Amino acid sequence: MSVRNLRILFPTRDGSDTVKAVDDIDFDVFQGETLGIIGESGSGKTTLGRALVSLIKPSEGQVLHQGRDPATLGRAEFRRHRRDYQIVFQDPNAALNPRMTILDSVIEPAEVLKEGNDASRRKAGLAVLSRVGLPREFADRYSHQLSGGQKQRVNIARVLMLRPKVIVCDEVVAALDVSIRGDVLNLFADLQREFGLTYVFITHDISVVSHISDRIAVTYLGKLMELGSAEDIIERPLHPYTQALLSAEPLPLPSAMRTARRIVLEGEIPSPISPPSGCRFRTRCPVAQPRCADDVPAWRELKPGHWVACHFSTADGPPSNDAIPQHDSKQGGLR
Amino acid sequence: MAAASTSFQSAPTQTNAHRTSSASTDALLDVRALSLAFQTSEGELPIIREVSFSVAPGERVGIVGESGCGKTVTGLSLLRLLPEQTARLSGQILFEGRDLATLSARQMRAVRGRDMAMIFQEPMSALDPVFTVGEQIGEAYRAHFPVDRKEARQRAIAALAEVGIPAPERRCDEYPHQLSGGMRQRVMIAMALICQPKLLIADEPTTALDVTVQSQITDLLRTLSERTGTALLFITHDLGVVAETCTRMITMYAGEVVEDAPVDDVLMKPRHPYTSGLLRSLPSLSARRSVLPSIPGRVPSPNAMPAGCRFAPRCSYAAESCQVRQTLVALGPQHAVQCCRAAEISLPGAVN
Fold it and tell me: How far apart are CA A241 and CA A266, in angstroms?
């Protein structure tokens, strides 16, 4: 998939203004990889995910699926095309019809596409249910009889039914307890190996995204701040926002083992209706300079495959580390 | 009343000695064998069973566990916020030596918000949309102290400033919908702390917030607790937040306390298989792209509790001895665990 100068604008309720949910974004998703997208709420990551699978039309720019722009396809062709590009949503409850049995929910997508007959669809549905680790007896149950983790497995089964090439996962484990999160993430990894799937994993959970991604994109107020390999982004971030975001992640480590210094960002993400001029992050950036208010930072490739939108970042790191007001993150234990 | 220049006067520095759940006379809060059952049409449904723990003055204690383990109802029952008609409480809630479980509704109202306050996960639903935040914070103060509106407002402004809200004089007259999620949670904290309570119960206060705002709020709770000597009971499912905020961690499973230990000890060397399982399932502790450990199964429902150890059906260490009911046993002066095999098994923690 290729995203080219993508811009998605929504009018505000009274129509007097526009919300720039996604504002001029460019990146590629490579076949068979997992691209993680992290950002705070309001950074446009869900809108971006929906645009990737043609649930939202771009206001400007394009989302290309293997070089083709789905917006140019005819109705019937578009319908056949989009089965390859699926999405799994955050809330496993809301995504299932409470009046349908699990098996009916799973085979519904194939019915819509008029694939096979009743018997073959049923057989395929039972096969994918067993593939996502749900026992046979679940097929005739209703969604309220299942736990959150099991419901999310049903949603994955529904999508697998169509044998897609790309799955966009929008906060798929956010609603699950940490004890079962691992199982669902392991399932995603197994399915990727088995079917050669490409994933775009949208989440605000840094530990999840760093665990499963090959590459990570960092969004802020509708813009990409940084994009690179998962190792580079997590171990050697080049953008001050990425650096602050990573340092805010609470780590379950005893106080003696904490070495990381926390960078506390002031305030919260500004409104996407009137984002700050120049660099969008400048209002919260600990190293902002006068220039940041005037010029929009260019999207620069500072290292092979590692892109950054900051005037002052270099291949060696984010701008002037020493100037960033840091303080030792105070530990839980008093000693 | 003194002038409202400082809202939360600093209390003498408290010693944060760790304590186990064994009864200690100098504890601020001492919960003894607290059980809770809900009356339903099909009879009594036991929710928490003989929960015992204590909180020392100024101490910060985290309660962790999966959803459905009884963390939230434990917090609500301490303040007796559960419906009296259907919630049956037994056991003792000793707060400064006084048993809250036996107080009349009127006596309890004098404790709530004054000596013990609570903040919740979703600040928007806890705030009244038709009153300004200043009125709501001031009301919390006026409920306990005989001051006029003018002074209550001054105190509310000072409280807003204390929790780091810029331009508190202006924000004081705004309505909840005009504030962001992080600001609303700060308002809740200001309201909870305006009477300088001795204990603040925080139920998942950062779960609805972004990680950068979460770190602001946990930092704020920790520094306020250190400065004012307010003890903190922090209910959360996020072990990272507990590690950064608290000094002691209580693990709850299926309505029981299964482990109670200083945070640093339990992260290094958990003694209950459930605590260990929770720690190991955190993605940040596994090598990138490796298979993540998880805990099989789910929390049993209250009407289908296993007879012996409640965790045994999900536990890879379960043995014959786990078929009988388990009790919380002290392993050391500060570490208690409810597992008969604790002495013989060695469990992985956050660091190996």
Answer: 12
